[in-house]
Amino acid sequence: MSPKTLRTIIAIFLFVHAIGHGQGLVASLGLFNSDTWHVRSWLFDSLLGEKGSRILATILMIVCILGFLATAFSFLGIGIPHESWRTLAIVFAIPSTLSLIFYWNAFSQLFNKIGAIGVNGWILIGLLIMNWPSEAELGF
User: Fold this and answer.
1) What is the distance between the alpha carbons of residues 23 and 106, in angstroms, rounded to a whole number?
2) Other CB atoms within 10 A of residue 84 CB
3) Measured between alpha carbons, how far is 129 from 113 in angstroms, rounded to an integer?
4) By C-alpha distance, which of 100, 95, 90, 98 is closest to 125?
5) What is the pLDDT of residues 32-78, one digit of tens each?
6) Number of H helices, E strands in the chain
């Protein structure tokens, strides 16, 4: 795979991952709720109450959206130094994973949930453990 193709794929995944957390934000703001799409948390509803849990979900989703947008822009070298993208990706994969664990139904479709797990897995395993992709593979 050419470096340009790899860069394009990674940039798209980072942007889509950021936008995907918008589903959780929509649910946490109460703009749409159903039996299968909501921000009820199996842990935080009992600890913080429904309102506190909803506030936490909203904060978590905003952090993930802004964090992955920053990661994508950093990856592309727009506004944030390119050298920061790996660190940003790893840092923001943590709240993203927590949002999936604690607010599973904030994401509307199983496909979206599995995709988010896949992106977070790539970030945490690929970047943190395997150091893939290398800067050389990306053409930098």
Assistant:
1) 7
2) 16
3) 23
4) 90
5) 888 889 999 999 999 999 999 999 999 999 999 999 999 999 999 99
6) 5, 0
- Return the residue matching tokens 């395997």: 130
Q: What is the three-state SS of 19-44?
A: HHHHHHHHHHCCCCCCCCCCCCCCCH
pLDDT at 108 over 90: no
Q: How far apart are CA 76 and CA 53, in angstroms?
A: 34
Smallest CA-to-CA distance from 95 within 32, 17, 38 is with: 17
CA 122 – CA 53 distance, rounded (Å): 28
